[in-house]
Amino acid sequence: MALHSQKVGLVKESLVEMLYVAEYAVTCRKTDKTKWGAYATGGILGFPATMILFSIIDCLGSIFANNKNFQVIIDGKKKSIKNPNQHIYILNSKYFDLDLSQVDLDNIYSNVRSTLTHNSLLPEGYLLQIGESENLPFNVAINESGRRIYFINVIKLYEFTKRATEKFIDDLDRGVIDFKSSIVHANVSKRDVPTSMYSSKPGQFEIPIREWIKK
Questions:
Q1: Residues 6+ apart with CB under 8 A from 9
Q2: How far is CA 175 from the centre of its chain?
Q3: In a domain, 214, yes or no
Q4: Alpha carbon of 184 to those of 16, 37, 109, 174: distances in Å?
Q5: Is the pTM value of this prediction over 0.85?
Q6: Domain encompassing residue 177
Q7: Which of 76, 123, 141, 201 has an alpha carbon 20 to 30 Å from 112's alpha carbon atom?
Q8: Number of domains the chain contains
Q9: Separation between Cα atoms, residue 86 and residue 156, nearest integer Å
Q10: Are 106 and 74 a contacting pair, CB within 8 Å?
Q11: Phi and psi at residue 149, in whole multiples of 5°?
Q12: Which residue, among 132, 129, 133, has the nearest Cα to 149 in the 3D structure?
């Protein structure tokens, strides 16, 4: 974690940090019974990996919120990202190059991203699997009752998210994405407290403090 004079630098670093942790989670194997007990099945750290990956997906989608020039194709129609629950539309963009339907995007957002993040649970019909040999991050099937079943392939989701993030950061660096014009930059900047950016010591903020409320 470094100090940055511009918010875009923090965005890039935080994405790289999250990818690093996600990579650890999908390469770790739970084999140590003294540590994992009954959960020492040789599986990966699937739940934290998935939560981190969806945090990255949320971040990428949020940068394009209310950007009328950025549209994705869903069910054959062009759609923009407007609300937080639409950040997941980024999965159908050039960064992930998926072709998920509206119902699948909504279900994945509500029942995987949100339920896992807020409740550490998944509903029945939503299954995390290592999925290393699968082609896509999400497999969708219809069961005998006509209900949709979702398989989340965690390693494949990591691979797609890693490539998407690398493309995204490259677009930031090349000026393809104007981060300062994004609603995210505007909203976060409203909360700024004026601060002298750097002291004479490189990499250290100089913050004048009048008094501490809590320390």
A1: 2
A2: 21
A3: no
A4: 19, 43, 20, 19
A5: yes
A6: 7-189
A7: 76
A8: 1
A9: 22
A10: no
A11: -120, 135
A12: 129
pLDDT in tens, the chain (215 residues): 666 667 788 899 999 999 999 999 999 999 999 999 999 999 999 999 999 999 999 999 999 999 989 999 999 999 999 999 999 999 999 999 999 999 999 999 999 999 999 999 999 999 999 999 999 999 999 999 999 999 999 999 999 999 999 999 999 999 999 988 899 988 888 887 776 655 556 666 677 778 888 88
Query: What are the CA-CA distances from residue 207 to residues 51, 180, 185, 193 (Å)?
Result: 34, 24, 22, 10
Amino acid at 113: R
* Token pair 């129609």: residue: 77
* Token representation of residue 212: 């501490």
Q: The tokens of 23 are what?
A: 């990579």
The answer to whether 201 and 3 have CB atoms below 8 angstroms apart is no
Q: Is residue 176 part of a domain?
A: yes
**Residue 8, both tokens:** 């875009």
Nearest to 25 by CA among 57, 54, 64, 60: 54
